[in-house]
Amino acid sequence: MNQPTLTTTALTILRVIVGFLFAAHGWQKFSEFTIAGTQASFAKMGVPAAEAAAPVIATLELAGGIALILGVLARVFAALLALNMLGAFFLVHAPAGVFAANGGYELVLLLAAAALAIALTGAGRLSVDRALFGRTGSKLNVLA
């Protein structure tokens, strides 16, 4: 295999898996925890404006995850999701140490790094972004 094919494959795998994980966490906040439960949990963890933050974060994770899977506005959603994970890192998980089993930051740090990588590279060749914005000379090429 040549390098461009490997890069395309790797980026697609990263984008789809990370998108799936974000979408699953967003869906969990709506369906399993409920928004009211997520608001209460956020408030207990000390998240500022928990009542407003919970539905915004749940929606961002669900919609942003789906967008990453499809590669739609991937740079924008990935940057927002990376910021979301940095917020979770600093506001909730950092004091608990590294390991997720203890409430630590290993998962949020990994998700932040993966989302940042997608924000920096774009969605890649196998994406809606590339199909819509990937033409040479397009003013929206930065989104591809």
* Helical content (DSSP H or I, runs of 4+): over 70%
Through-space gap between termini: 23 Å
What is the number of beta strands? 0
What fraction of residues sit in β-strands?
under 5%
- Uncertain stretches: none
Give the C-alpha Rg.
Answer: 16 Å
Main sheet record: none
Give the CA-based shape: elongated
* Computed structural class: mainly alpha
Task: List the total number of helices.
Answer: 6
- The H/E string reads HHHHHH
Mean pLDDT: 95
Question: What brief labels describe this structure?
Answer:
single chain, 144 residues, mainly alpha, 6 helices, 0% strand
Task: Outline the secondary-structure elements.
Layout: H1 3-31, H2 35-45, H3 50-70, H4 74-93, H5 106-121, H6 128-133
Helix pairs in contact: 1-3, 1-5, 2-3, 3-4, 4-5
Give the structure's gist in a few sentences.
This protein has helices at residues 3-31, 35-45, 50-70, 74-93, 106-121, 128-133. The protein has 144 residues and is an all-alpha fold.
Describe this entry's structure for a reader:
This protein is mostly helical and 144 residues long. It has helices at residues 3-31, 35-45, 50-70, 74-93, 106-121, 128-133. Helix 1 (3-31) runs antiparallel to helix 3 and helix 3 (50-70) packs across helix 4. The longest helix is centred in the N-terminal third of the chain and has 29 residues, at 3-31.
